Amino acid sequence: MDDEDRQRFLDVLIHVVSRFHLLLHAYCLMDNHFHLVVETPDANLSKAMRQLNGVYTQAFNRRHGRIGNVLQGRFKAILVDQDRYLLELCRNVALNPVRSITIRKPIPIRGRATKPPATRLHAILSDSGLAEQGLTIYCRLLITHGC
Prior knowledge:
Elements: H1 3-19, E1 23-29, E2 34-39, H2 45-64, H3 83-99, H4 120-127, H5 134-145
Antiparallel strand pairs: 1-2
Helix pairs in contact: 1-2, 3-5
């Protein structure tokens, strides 16, 4: 997986988030898997994941002249019912590449930037005084300082 593959994944992810009305709180792309923290107001996670995995797999295979699965197995979903756990989960997703020793510091993703919609996570960050800094800076602080 190279930068072009990663950008394609993000393009597909942005489309899926919009089409299925997901609230994307955090994500992490690794070389062989990914982590998402999403809310599904429409209770359509399975359909959204099928779309994400299917469209990305087709694009990846077309580009690399391959056939078959790119991502193995069914996704795992965990119900997050407490604000404290949501923050901890986002923290763990942001730190995943650092903890796996894949990277030593955060790598900025080039490309389009969009302002995320207000979500439960933004409300939690606002209550803790982090809303002005935004989730991106919050995640960078987590990675840089391991807060």
